[in-house]
Amino acid sequence: MTFMYNKYSIKSLVRAINVLEMINEIDKEFSLSELVKVTGINTNYLFRLLLTLQSKQFIEVDKISGKYRLGIKVFELGQTAIKHQELVNHSRPILEYLSNQSSETSGYSVFMHEFSYVVDCVESDLSVRVINTMGSCFPLHCTAIGKAQIAHLGDNELQLWIKTNKLIKYSLNTIVEPNKLKNELNKIYLQGYAIEAQEFEDGVGGIAAPVVNRDNKIIGSIGISAPMYRLSPERLEDNLIPLVKWAGKELSSKF
Question: pLDDT tens, 103-143?
């Protein structure tokens, strides 16, 4: 790969950007030796460059293979652009309907590696509400938006995810035993929605449904977040579960 410069270029920055673009375009993980081969950059220089990108979370290293891939910071920077893309154009009307019908904060999220990221949201007008912001990230194993997504991973993918990600205990209700989490995720897959009951944060709950494409591959989740005192079993059963399941199916139909 040949890098082009002009007289005003900062060469180290151009090289860093080109490495990021190359990993993004080819969409695979690279070892250091593979990156040296395709970039032509000196091994010692490239290693320092990757360490710098890793320290800023633009690059991360797979815990098993030791190979490099794009980090979460790349995803975060892309949120402003995503806001104007087709994905959010599809989700925004459904999120507004969800929020209007439930009076709660609604959100659409996608996951990358260890977290679920909010890519669009509509905040509740109530004085006591859950506040989510675009680009916020949440753990996958103890939130409704996260569980709804990893419940749709294949068996091998889920096994690898559990093996390579630490199940941190955020509250007394957080599930951290792998087998118990697998049982919970299987239940979520069968019923078509996930419920969060103070598993990540005390006093906060939520419900989310998966968003899948036409091949039934998971691409995100959509749902609502609310104070736990407003999530009674009766309200969930009579109103919120049907509403969120409808939202998941409606958004899935766009893909």
Answer: 999 999 988 767 898 989 999 999 999 998 877 889 999 99
Angle of CA points 246, 233, 94, to nearest 5°: 20
* Beta carbons of 68 and 34 less than 8 angstroms apart: no
- The DSSP annotation for the chain comes to ------TT--HHHHHHHHHHHHHHHHTS-B-HHHHHHHH---HHHHHHHHHHHHHTTSEEE-TTT--EEE-HHHHHHTHHHHTTSHHHHHHHHHHHHHHHHHSSEEEEEEEETTEEEEEEEE---SSS-----TT-EEESTTSHHHHHHHTTS-HHHHHHHHHHS-----STT----HHHHHHHHHHHHHHT-EEEESSSSTTEEEEEEEEE-TT--EEEEEEEEEEGGG--HHHIIIIIHHHHHHHHHHHHTT-
With 0-12 CB in 10 A as exposed, 13-18 as middle and 19+ as buried, what is 63? exposed
Domains of the chain: 11-75 (1.10.10.10), 78-252 (3.30.450.40)
| pLDDT class of 79 with cuts at 50, 70, 90 | low
According to DSSP, the β-strands at 194-197 and 68-70 are unpaired
pLDDT of the residue at 4: 47
* pTM score: 0.70
Instruction: Tell me which residue of 116, 161, 121, 120 sits closest to 140, measured CA to CA.
Output: 116
